[in-house]
Amino acid sequence: MSDAGKEWEIRPEASGDAPAVGALVAKAFGPGRFAKSAYRLREGVDPEPGLSFVAVENAVLRGSVRFWPIFVGRQPALLLGPLAVESDQRGRGLGIALMERGIAEAKRLGHRAVILVGDAPYYARVGFAQLPKDSVKFPGPVDKGRILGLALVDGALESLTGEVARARIDRPVCAAGAAVGPGGGLVINTG
Ligand SMILES: CC(C)(COP(=O)(O)OP(=O)(O)OC[C@H]1O[C@@H](n2cnc3c(N)ncnc32)[C@H](O)[C@@H]1OP(=O)(O)O)[C@@H](O)C(=O)NCCC(=O)NCCS
Fold this sequence. Notes:
By secondary structure, the chain is of the alpha+beta class. It has one domain: Gcn5-related N-acetyltransferase (GNAT) (Aminopeptidase, 3-Layer(aba) Sandwich), CATH 3.40.630. The chain is built from four helices and twelve strands. It is globular, with a radius of gyration of 16 Å. Bound molecules: coenzyme A. Coenzyme A binds next to helix 1, strand 4, helix 3 and helix 4.
């Protein structure tokens, strides 16, 4: 889409966006998201700082993307997702624009590689390619043909082998989809 016809903008996610982002992700993925292998890697972890972006139009949230800190074997990397666009706003280029912004910023911040679980034909549009089967092992069942990677520095995918794990844990997790809050209260994750 040409910039001339576009009324939306991509900007960093602000703390006040969290409820709307949570609602969008819940609508886009449903309760089944908690069972996903990629979700295990986000449990109890805050998104990588500076790498969450939203698409907004006239102050209304249209889409969102976040990235998470992981290790693949001993290599630090990022996990992309969730990426979600409001159902009545799809096909306007927001999904690609959100990813392009995040990827550019990740590169600028010195990250080396991004992986995700998703549809190869879509993510190929921003440079993702299937990783060699069995090179990367997620914590739980994943369709291996959907494990995709993007090198942010030359050769970064070649050393990307091993188990995928959270790079840090920000909150202790006590049940699927729930984490213990700072005061000991239960926090239900919605994103
Ligand atoms: C996937 C999603 C983020 C795409 O957002 P979007 O803003 O519509 O994407 P864009 O407008 O940037 O790109 C649209 C193009 O990608 C294509 N596309 C969208 N999803 C695709 C998919 N799963 N596989 C292949 N192509 C896809 C569209 O057909 C369209 O093609 P065109 O440009 O030739 O018409 C959006 O559909 C969504 O939120 N889906 C629900 C959540 C989800 O599935 N997230 C991804 C997890 S893998």
